[in-house]
Design goal:
Order of helices and strands: HEEEEEEHEEEEEEEEEEEEEEEEEEE
Number of helices: 2
Oligomer: single chain
Helix content: under 10%
Number of strands: 25
Radius of gyration: 20 Å
Strand content: 25-35%
Largest sheet: 5 strands, antiparallel
Length: 400
């Protein structure tokens, strides 16, 4: 069901060839010696001896890791900008500035993080916003310094897809996005559960959360794309080391993943919406089954990978997550709070803590801002909130 397209013309052909060669070299180095957890696994991948059946690779014993403190703190340093409309994805630029996507307007805007000034880059063609779909996650190319490519996940009239676009800030406002180059299409769409978070991992591969669109059965079908975490090269091909042969599927049994983050040991974590009972925070292993729709939250069945933490849906409904100061930070929509989950290795070191409860409404996206700082995006204008003056906004936080 991989519907990848390879439409590219002119200079992009050369650019892709150069990128593919560079990525092949990176993949070779990673497979040869880089480890994600001290247990001999390539970053983001499976054991080199993986048979492609989706089984877990065993890992050698690792040294005990220091636990994050049981309690932490959050300080709102300032409001960076206000009056954003249905903001969803956030991507900090290396030269300064924050790119933010608008789910319903289909636009990408650059925010000056010092002044709060907003400059619209342009509208992404083909976005068909409806329900929980529209222009969702955005990410910068792993070679952004040389190619200035922005990746975006969005809903069209027929599917969800991932494209990349050249960002040319020398052009006038509203005309700074190049024509979208579709690298992957055919991800199921729906009025609900479109997933949408994308992020490049430490292995420079692109990861995407794909929701099951309300069609529960496809979450357990490894040949379907819905209800999965997908892993692909920047060109949209199945990434080296994926657990299923010639497939972008990385893990399955998910309901609606909207948060992806890596810790300081390069381990992947994901937040997931539950239905009526339990939302989840999961540590992701390639090829593992996370249970939906057979189980929601923790279970006693060894076939399913249990979450390290779970919440009632009115306390979380989690979207974005970020790693900082030894903890994962999880933005809650319905829960209207920011959760801190202190880590020790692949487990929670203590009970999760809640911050900002009800102070800024629904919280959509949280992104590292360097050191002990985070960027936090609110989501009151998404049709389910109660927008007030200034909504929606980006906040700068100081966390411990």
């Amino acid at each position: 069901m991989n519907s990848r397209t390879a439409a590219s013309k002119g200079p992009l052909i050369v650019q892709r060839r150069v990128m593919k060669a560079a990525l092949a070299a990176v993949a070779l180095v990673v497979t040869a010696g880089c480890s994600s957890d001290g247990g001999g696994l390539p970053i983001g991948g499976t054991s080199p001896s993986s048979s492609g059946t989706g089984t877990r690779a065993s890992s050698a014993p690792r040294a005990t890791e220091t636990a994050a403190p049981a309690t932490g703190s959050v300080k709102v340093v300032r409001t960076v900008t206000e009056d954003l409309k249905s903001p969803w994805g956030l991507a900090p630029l290396p030269e300064g500035g924050l790119l933010v996507s608008s789910r319903d307007e289909g636009t990408i805007t650059r925010v000056d993080e010092k002044t709060g000034m907003k400059t619209e880059l342009g509208q992404v063609p083909g976005v068909a916003p409806a329900g929980e779909g529209g222009l969702l996650g955005i990410a910068l190319s792993p070679t952004y310094a040389s190619d200035h490519m922005i990746y975006a996940y969005f809903t069209t009239a027929s599917d969800n897809r991932i494209v990349r676009m050249l960002y040319d800030e020398k052009k006038p406002s509203g005309e700074q996005l190049g024509a979208p180059d579709t690298i992957f299409k055919g991800i199921p769409k729906g009025m609900i559960h479109n997933g949408g978070r994308i992020a490049f991992g430490p292995d420079r591969m692109l990861y995407a959360g794909a929701g099951e669109t309300g069609d529960r059965g496809q979450a357990q079908e490894t040949k379907a794309l819905g209800g999965k975490i997908l892993r692909m090269t920047p060109d949209g091909d199945p990434a080296p080391g994926n657990p299923f042969d010639n497939s972008v599927v990385y893990s399955y049994g998910h309901r609606n993943v909207q948060g992806l983050a890596w810790d300081d040991k390069q381990r992947l974590w994901a937040s997931e919406f539950g239905q009526d009972t339990w939302d989840e925070l999961n540590q992701i292993k390639p090829g593992d089954n996370y249970g939906w729709p057979m189980v929601e939250g923790k279970s006693d069945d060894p076939k399913y990978h249990n979450p390290i933490a779970q919440w009632h849906t009115d306390q979380a409904s989690p979207s974005g997550i970020a790693y900082a100061e030894g903890s994962l930070w999880m933005a809650g929509l319905r829960g209207q709070r920011l959760w801190r989950i202190p880590l020790k290795g692949t487990e929670a070191a203590a009970a999760p803590q809640a911050f900002l409860k009800g102070e800024y409404g629904r919280l959509r996206t949280v992104v590292p801002a360097g050191g002990d700082k985070l960027w936090l995006v609110t989501s009151e204008t998404d049709g389910r909130g109660s927008p007030g003056k200034g909504d929606d906004r980006i906040l700068e936080l100081e966390v411990k």
